[in-house]
Amino acid sequence: AQSVTQPDIHITVSEGASLELRCNYSYGATPYLFWYVQSPGQGLQLLLKYFSGDTLVQGIKGFEAEFKRSQSSFNLRKPSVHWSDAAEYFCAVGYTSGTYKYIFGTGTRLKVLA
Amino acid sequence: KAGVTQTPRYLIKTRGQQVTLSCSPISGHRSVSWYQQTPGQGLQFLFEYFSETQRNKGNFPGRFSGRQFSNSRSEMNVSTLELGDSALYLCASSLSVSGEQYFGPGTRLTVT
């Protein structure tokens, strides 16, 4: 069955440090890939998406992600984290199995130290 | 463009009651999906509607139902509420069935 794995439940980084959040998926072909961010008590906001083409995609708020087909990964990165980046981050995969479906990883909660 | 709106934002119900949540998608979006989010289970897919037809359904009991109207607005209904139904219910809309989803702020349902 298709799946999305975010191996890190919690990550703590210092403000100004770089960040990488991991996401691995299981799917036979190349799916559509997404990263979302959720602040406490809020809905999810789309950070970036990958459908095809350039494997390094730029998103909002200074985030980028790189699709690596050989590793079935779509890791999210930011060169310098701000305190306002503290939130929960979800990786999502869109794929076709009969109909088009969407599945989410379990999320990574980011804490930023001042 | 206005984003996805959900009403009400907060709701308190007692066990055994029923509840209806509403979602208005972004203008022009025809696909609406519903998710249940809880601390223990994460984001779980409930169902998806496109042009008033349910296209996909998650693994939830029949107490959970939904519908979509001709203007793409959607409602979900939960009958005979249980304590375990307490959750944040998120609605998401997309332009097409394979497009990126845009989420509303959610409805926080508390069942006592």
Keywords:
heterodimer, A: 114 residues, mainly beta, 6-stranded mixed beta sheet, 4-stranded antiparallel beta sheet, globular, B: 112 residues, 7-stranded mixed beta sheet, 11 strands, 0% helix
Q: Could you please describe the fold and organization of this structure?
A:
The complex is a heterodimer of chains A (about 110) and B (about 110). Chain A is an all-beta fold and about 110 residues long. Helix content of chain A is about 0%, strand content about 55%. Chain A contains no helices and twelve strands. Chain A has strands at about 5, 10-15, 20, 25, 30-40, 45-50, 55-60, 65-70, 75-80, 85-95, 100-105, 110-114. In chain A, a hairpin with a 5-residue loop joins strand 5 (about 30-40) and strand 6. Chain B is mainly β and about 110 residues long. Helices cover about 0% and strands about 55% of the residues of chain B. Chain B has strands spanning about 5, 10-15, 20-25, 30-40, 40-50, 55, 65-70, 75-80, 85-95, 100-105, 105-110. Chain B is globular. In chain B, strands 2, 4, 5, 6, 9, 10 and 11 form a seven-stranded mixed beta sheet that branches. Chain B has a four-stranded antiparallel beta sheet with strand order 1-3-8-7, with no helix packed on it. Classes of the chains: A mainly beta (about 110), B mainly beta (about 110). Chains A and B meet through strand 5, strand 6, strand 10 and strand 11 of A and strand 5, strand 9 and strand 10 of B.
How many helical elements of chain B?
A: 0
Query: What is the SS-derived class of chain A?
Result: mainly beta
* Share of residues in strands of chain A: over 45%
Q: Cα distance, first to last residue of chain A?
A: 41 Å
Average pLDDT level of chain B: 95
> Main beta sheet of chain A, described?
6 strands, mixed
Query: Regions of chain A with pLDDT < 50 over 5+ consecutive residues?
Result: none
Please work out how many helical segments of chain A DSSP would assign.
Answer: 0
Indicate the multimeric state.
heterodimer
Give the overall silhouette of chain A: globular
| Relative helix content of chain A | under 10%
Name the chain pair whose interface involves the most residues.
A-B, 22 and 21 residues
Distance between the termini of chain B: 37 Å
Largest sheet of chain B: 7 strands, mixed
* Mean pLDDT reading of chain A: 93
Instruction: List the uncertain runs of chain B.
Output: none
Strand elements of chain B, count: 11
Give the topology string of chain B: H per helix, E per strand: EEEEEEEEEEE
Radius of gyration of chain B: 13 Å
**Order of helix and strand elements from N to C terminus of chain A:** EEEEEEEEEEEE
Strand tally of chain A is 12
